[in-house]
Design a protein that fits this description.
Elements lengths: L1 E6 L2 E6 L26 H10 L2 H18 L39 H37 L1 H15 L3 H12 L4 H27 L3 H8 L4 H13 L1 H23 L11 H8 L8 H28 L5
Antiparallel strand pairs: 1-2
Helix pairs in contact: 1-11, 2-3, 2-11, 3-4, 3-6, 3-9, 3-11, 4-6, 5-6, 6-8, 6-9, 7-8, 9-10, 9-11, 10-11
Keywords: Cell membrane, Membrane, Transmembrane, Transmembrane helix, Transport
GO biological process, one term: transmembrane transport
InterPro entries: BP-dependent_transpt_permease, MetI-like, MetI-like_sf, OppC_N
Length: about 325
């Protein structure tokens, strides 16, 4: 006598009454394939959560728009603030109209055109600075956490020197000594002062992961140091670095605006939102539109990157699930 047992979507015949089984495996019903379940990982779960997070979707849409705006401003305005005759003094401080949505500034330049073109320098500073601090701070933090010992001690003491220098104050001091600045010099200066934060986060993350079971198993199987570092340590330690980098990107854009406002960041003929706010601060009571639009663009940009960073943090932090 045979007893039929249902297993999922498949039927398996098993013998009863102590009769020996003819097979140690569960057979498949003809015409059907066994389904393989994919193990969920931290990254796949994070991507799934982000797709359903409205804050991330809104922030990402704004970030994408800003990146396109900075890359091809010609798509958003046919005019250029760098062409001869772009500014006419007879148009000075004219209010917004149907032909000129944001009005004109003190020099008679179209505020909308300048606001669009100013996005390029601000976005360049944010992206380049963030990339530099992640590469430099991440690499040094990975080295210090994985090697440990004297290397870790020396790098940690060296990092503390930079931690003692406030970002904005140190940027003001260095940019004042350099004289004329542009988006690239501002990025290098901010990255020079900003990498220690990423260093500490990466070092701490590596120290938490280096003694986990999968690392011990990989070492026991004969995996080399480079393979263990790149295949096991780095992918599991990089998550908090990405989170902090996404949030810091908006901070660096705000820092560039502060330096440009003080006259030691991006210099004319370059354009940035901070420089526009600085120029408008003298006449903002008489013509508030000159200050309102570049300041709003700056605020929206910083907010968009912070929204993305917060959403990524929530998705990657298991404690917040």
């Amino acid at each position: 006598m045979r007893e039929t047992t249902t297993v999922g979507d498949e039927l398996t015949d098993t013998k009863t009454a102590g009769a020996p089984s003819t097979s140690g495996t569960v057979g498949n019903t003809p015409g059907k394939k066994a389904k393989k379940e994919r193990e969920a990982s931290l990254w796949s779960d994070a991507v799934s959560d982000l797709r359903r997070n409205p804050i991330f979707l809104i922030g990402s849409a704004l970030v994408l728009l800003l990146v396109v705006l900075s890359a091809v401003p010609q798509w958003f305005t046919p005019d250029s603030p760098f062409t001869a005759g772009a500014c006419q003094l007879q148009d000075s401080l004219k209010k917004p109209s149907a032909d000129h949505w944001f009005g004109f500034d003190v020099q008679g330049c179209d505020v909308y055109t300048r606001t669009v073109w100013a996005a390029r320098n601000s976005i360049i500073v944010g992206i380049v600075t963030t990339a530099l601090v992640i590469v430099v701070g991440g690499a040094l933090g990975l080295l210090a956490g994985w090697v440990g010992g004297l290397v870790d001690s020396l790098l940690s003491r060296f990092t503390e020197i930079f931690f003692a220098i406030p970002l904005l104050l140190g940027g003001m001091l260095i940019m004042s000594g350099l004289g004329k600045g542009n988006a690239w010099t501002v990025s290098i200066v901010l990255a020079t002062l900003g990498w220690p934060q990423i260093f500490r986060i990466m070092r701490s993350s590596v120290l938490q992961n280096k003694n986990n079971d999968y690392v011990v198993a990989a070492r026991a199987l004969g995996a080399g140091t480079w393979r263990i570092t790149m295949r096991h340590i780095l992918p599991n330690a990089i998550a908090p670095v990405i989170v902090v980098g996404a949030i810091s990107l908006g901070v660096y854009i705000g820092a560039e605006a502060a330096l440009s406002y003080l006259g030691i960041g991006v210099q004319p003929p370059g354009i940035s939102w901070g420089l526009m706010v600085s120029d408008a601060s003298v006449r903002w009571l008489q013509a508030p539109h000159v200050l309102l639009f570049p300041a709003a663009a700056l605020s929206i940009t910083v907010l968009a990157f912070i929204m993305v960073g917060d959403a990524v943090r929530d998705a990657l932090d298991p404690k917040l699930r």
